[in-house]
């Protein structure tokens, strides 16, 4: 980091140099170089539709990333087990700032600029383009702050105008994101939706559902810091309910295509090597509960099929040295790993239904927690095409004891959020159920990660603000709890 005094000197000499350069240019004869240095193939205007498509692809990458699935032990690695053992402590976030967030800010800027806005209406109404960009920005920033904690936010995306942004607190970021969501929804107009929208094809009613569902999930994430039925989080939760998705027909999915340029990443993973299986933690739990989703979440082992006695076997989680063969454990459902068009699950109705069940138990809303709990289970069974729903519901009714009921809701949500790694991880961090044992001989830390360490560049590129964040938040490692994760039963008791 450049000392302030040296920066001042550099600025002064830069101004002198620029002044001399300007004088030199003014003193020269006017020379017309024509189009010598003009790239005929370079776009002369911002193509908002392409920026939007690129930003939405970032969402698709986040919702199909396997790291959260490894942390919550839905899956386990077979041969190369480092990911299961938390090999990476410091995770890159620059790609989000330089990629999707910059693209989205550009959409907002050009559609807000009086000199450029008219030219952007070919890609949809200015207001709708801005609104969608703001909602996706909120989604990405929520992911970032839930993953790293304090992050550059209010001062980010300003380029050379602010090369050393402060790290805002999670509380500040969450509060601002709620406002961003509300304002984005309010500014939507009756014009056309944005071109390049892969999620909803420019359907602004669906974008309203996206924003309200995000707000609802965010509000519940604050239940430990704002538990009051009349408090901040409960208020935000209730505001979002009428606009959030209300059935499985409204699930919010990223539509992957058979084309290799935009296909399901799980298929790509299994084209290169078969190194992921359903974990023994999940399979053993499903077997113990006689849960029919076992047959749609996992495949029989190849060895057992060839022996004539098909069975499900989970991959032991996080082994330091694995000699287990891929043929001896249960793979993820073939409909996921060999289907290029299996969609990315962003927000599903079963997560919303379980959230309502929890909100009833918290006293935030009226209604039957049992009904919402059963609706969540039902939606999960229906989405995956599992049979035996009525028998399962009869075997696992919601307890009338609130503490037991909350654990049941959390564990059913954990089951339902299979292959939704980041949402599963965030919900597990907040509630702490089921209780998960860490990998054998973790490579970083002593427990299941509850956070990611900052980008390796931060300590040298933004030293002062990085140090302030670590001082306020805690050590920069996998074990420091984020702000809203206050009652995690594994390490906070």
UniProtKB/TrEMBL annotation:
Superkingdom of the organism of origin: Bacteria
InterPro entries: SusD-like_2 (IPR041662), TPR-like_helical_dom_sf (IPR011990)
Keyword Secreted: no
Classification via PROSITE patterns: PROKAR_LIPOPROTEIN
Pfam families given in the database record: SusD-like_2 (PF12771)
UniProtKB keywords: Lipoprotein
This protein's name: SusD/RagB family nutrient-binding outer membrane lipoprotein
Organism: Flagellimonas aequoris
């Amino acid at each position: 980091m450049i000392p302030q005094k040296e920066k001042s000197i550099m600025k002064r000499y830069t101004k002198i140099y620029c002044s001399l350069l300007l004088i030199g240019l003014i003193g020269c004869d006017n020379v017309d170089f024509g189009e010598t240095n003009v790239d005929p193939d370079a776009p002369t205007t911002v193509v908002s539709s392409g920026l939007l498509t690129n930003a939405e692809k970032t969402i698709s990458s986040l919702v199909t990333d396997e790291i959260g699935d490894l942390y919550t032990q839905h899956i386990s690695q077979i041969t190369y087990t480092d990911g299961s053992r938390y090999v990476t402590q410091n995770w890159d976030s620059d790609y989000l700032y330089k990629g999707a967030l910059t693209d989205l800010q550009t959409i907002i800027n050009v559609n807000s600029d009086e000199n450029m806005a008219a030219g952007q209406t070919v890609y949809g109404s200015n207001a709708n383009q801005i609104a969608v960009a703001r909602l996706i920005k909120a989604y990405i920033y929520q992911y970032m702050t839930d993953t790293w904690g304090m992050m550059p936010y209010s001062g980010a995306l300003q380029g050379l105008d602010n090369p050393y942004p402060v790290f805002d607190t999670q509380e500040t970021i969450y509060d601002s994101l709620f406002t961003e969501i509300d304002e984005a929804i309010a500014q939507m107009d009756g014009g056309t939706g944005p071109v390049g929208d892969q999620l909803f094809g420019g359907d602004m009613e669906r974008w309203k559902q996206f924003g309200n569902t995000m707000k609802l999930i965010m509000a519940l994430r604050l239940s430990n810091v704002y538990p009051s039925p009349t408090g901040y989080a409960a208020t935000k939760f209730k505001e979002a309910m009428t606009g959030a998705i209300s059935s499985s027909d409204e699930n919010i999915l990223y539509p992957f295509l058979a084309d290799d340029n935009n296909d399901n990443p799980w298929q790509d993973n299994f084209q290169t090597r078969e190194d992921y299986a359903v974990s023994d933690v999940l399979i053993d739990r499903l077997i113990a509960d006689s849960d029919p989703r076992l047959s749609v979440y996992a495949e029989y082992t190849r060895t057992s099929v060839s022996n004539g006695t098909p069975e499900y076997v989970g991959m032991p989680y996080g082994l330091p040295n694995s000699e287990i063969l891929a043929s001896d454990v249960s793979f993820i459902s073939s409909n996921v790993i060999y289907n290029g068009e299996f969609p990315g699950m962003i927000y599903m109705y079963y997560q919303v239904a379980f959230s309502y069940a929890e909100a009833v138990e918290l006293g935030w809303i009226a209604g039957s927690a049992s009904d919402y709990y059963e609706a969540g289970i039902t939606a999960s069974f229906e989405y995956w095409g599992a049979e035996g729903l009525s028998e399962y519901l009869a075997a696992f009714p919601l307890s009338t004891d609130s503490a037991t009921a909350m654990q049941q809701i959390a564990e059913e949500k954990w089951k339902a959020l299979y292959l939704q790694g980041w949402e599963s991880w965030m919900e597990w961090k907040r509630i702490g159920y089921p209780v998960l044992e860490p990998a054998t001989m973790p490579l970083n830390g002593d427990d299941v990660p509850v956070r990611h360490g900052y980008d390796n560049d931060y300590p040298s590129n933004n030293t002062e603000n990085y140090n302030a964040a670590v001082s306020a938040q805690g050590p920069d490692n996998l074990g420091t709890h984020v702000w809203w994760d206050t009652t995690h039963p594994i390490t906070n008791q």
